[in-house]
Amino acid sequence: MIETEGQLVEAVKAGDRGAMRRLYDRYAGYAMATAMRYIADRDDVHDVVQDSFIKVFTTIGSFSFHGEGSLKAWISRIVANQSIDHLKSRQRLTFVSDVPDDSVDEGPEVERVPPDVLTHLIAQLPTGYRLVLNLFVFEQLSHREIAQRLGIGENTSASQYNRAKNKLAGMIKNYLKQQER
Amino acid sequence: MKQEEWTEQLRNRLSDHQEAVPDDLWAGIEAGLDAPVAQRRPAPLWHRWAAAAAVVLLLAGGTMVYFRGEREEVRGEKLEARGEKQEVRSEKQEVRDERVAEALMPAKSSQTLMPKMPEALETPDIPETPDIPDIPEVPDTPENPEPPETPEPIAQPENPFVTIDVTTHDSRRLTAALYAGNGLDNRYNTDRVMMSPNMAEKYFAMNDMMGTRSEEHIWLANFEEREHHERPFTIGLQLRYPLSDRLSLSSGLVYTRLKSEFTKVMKGNEVEQQQQLHYVGLPLGLQYRLWQIGHLGVYASAGGQVDWNVSARMGVNGSQYDIDKDRLQWSLNGAVGLAYDLTPHVALFAEPGFKYYIDNNSPVRNYFKDKPMNFSLQVGMQLNVGKR
């Protein structure tokens, strides 16, 4: 019988090392994928995911289970936070305040691009773009929440997002064009 | 609308995406979980105890070939490896940063340097405990490897220190010891710099208008102060006078050097100051011999020391100047000592123990203030000066 997220959480909370390992086995791949959207350097991703799981296991007591899927979401949130902190500690984040572009370009055909390529392309975005895009699209934060999390203005968040989106769309289209050749 | 659709597709496409997991990841996590809760970054203290124990074992086995050298080498290598990795990676990071900056340049009209706030806000429904991220501590650097070279053995049995020829029995002689020792930990500290109340008011007022008032303290991005205290370097001469069969009194003269670096970061510009403090200390202690098994003796030691700061220098960009000297520094110490007799006149000894530096309330910032309680290891050579 497959262990549910709820059962797994209970076992880990009880301090069961075996359960920790099972939780890790189940979610490490997702955690890697999440961190790789934020951070391009493989070694850094390794460190961030490692620290994230240590945080998961040491703070799981404060996690309240809201049903299937909430554990995965919580873990990915921790990975996102660790990634952001990592980037912040390593470099000055640069954001550009600008009038939002409203591009009416057709969206790219995301379905035709393999997920690992998409992950790689996102990681190639400039840091400011990358953070905002990740938080908006994947963590589904509002611009107001992003602004608070990153210590920037709401307008900055919105404009960064627009630019990030356009840039990523361009990168995806380029990739597809190359594939067609 | 088209735009929103494609990012949604993007999210869906990646929501179940997994990437390959490195094999050694779990081992690192387990190691992290098993480490003491307080801090995972600096090597846990028991490593150092183990290293000290290794010294003791080597001594006990009578293989004193290069007992000190080996231990240091092993540790030094490890540290170096870590240090290198760190360096290489930060270089890479810099390169990437430049690229990022370049990529941003053409598009920007104005760059906002927003104040950095303490971690606020994880979204409320996902209770990840908010924490203030500290700049990760940098691991120990291999510089100033301790302990320094054992001083040349002044190994003539008839030595100028022969002042008292107590007894013909081996255990009742005045002994002199040359030793070197130091704390086993470099200290790093990072302080963030707060926005001035004036500026903060304006910032709050602006946020109030936008309805996004948040934190009370605002840490300035790009401003910080770091301090790094190197491990103290100590070298000394010790004389022991036996009071009874087991008890002896010791004193001597100790030189200690403290090096610290202070870095002020302002908008990416770093100003680095190097502080060097030189102390001359007078120790006074009691040793109590616990066991003597063949050539190996074990003793307990306790005492105090007073250190005078004889010189205090600060260097900035290559220029040096004197700064206010530290006040008298008192300390207490306790240790377990092992002595191994190589010859009737010469013994090697190792004293792992603790030192506690009593706060002298001076404004001087140094290793003693940063880490008053200190694990210390003294190793050296004792000269038993006296006739058989």
Supply database-style keywords.
heterodimer; A: Arc Repressor Mutant, subunit A; 2 domains; 8 helices; globular; B: Porin; eight-stranded antiparallel β-barrel
Q: Could you explain how this protein is built, in words?
A:
- The complex is a heterodimer of chains A (181) and B (388).
- Chain A is mainly alpha-helical and 181 residues long.
- Chain A has 8 helices and 1 strand.
- Chain A has helices spanning 5-13, 17-38, 42-59, 70-90, 115-123, 127-138, 143-150, 154-180; one strand at 96-97.
- In chain A, helix 1 (5-13) packs across helix 2.
- The longest helix of chain A is centred in the last third of the chain and has 27 residues, at 154-180.
- Helix content of chain B is 25%, strand content 38%.
- Chain B has 6 helices and 12 strands.
- The longest helix of chain B has 38 residues, at 67-104.
- The model of chain B is unreliable at 38-48, 55-172 and 211-216 (pLDDT under 50).
- The chains are: A mainly alpha (181), B alpha+beta (388).
- The interface between A and B is large, with 80 and 65 residues.
- Strand 1 (96-97) of chain A pairs antiparallel with strand 1 (110-111) of chain B, so a sheet runs across the interface.
What is the structure about, briefly put?
The complex is a heterodimer of chains A (181) and B (388). Chain A has helices at residues 5-13, 17-38, 42-59, 70-90, 115-123, 127-138, 143-150, 154-180; one strand at 96-97. With 181 residues, chain A is mainly α.
- Average predicted local confidence, pLDDT of chain B: 64
User: How much beta of chain A, percentage-wise?
Assistant: under 5%
Overall form of chain A: globular
Number of helical segments of chain A? 8
CATH-scheme architecture of the largest domain in chain B: Beta Barrel
Helix share, percent of chain B: 10-25%
* CATH topology term of the largest domain in chain A: Rna Polymerase Sigma Factor, Chain: A
Radius of gyration of chain A: 18 Å
- Tell me the name of the CATH class of the largest domain in chain B: Mainly Beta
How many E-type strands of chain A?
Answer: 1
Residue runs with pLDDT of under 50 for 5 or more positions of chain A:
none
Which residues of chain B sit in consecutive blocks of at least 5 with pLDDT less than 50? 38-48, 55-172, 211-216
Helix-and-strand structural type of chain B: alpha+beta
Total helices of chain B: the number is: 6
Which two chains share the most extensive interface? Answer: A-B, 80 and 65 residues
Instruction: Tell how many strands the DSSP assignment of chain B holds.
Output: 12
Mind telling me which CATH architecture of the largest domain in chain A this is?
A: Orthogonal Bundle
Please report the first level of CATH classification, the CATH class of the largest domain in chain A. Mainly Alpha
CATH topology of the largest domain in chain B: Porin
How much helix is in the residues of chain A? Answer: 55-70%
pLDDT average of chain A, as an integer? 88
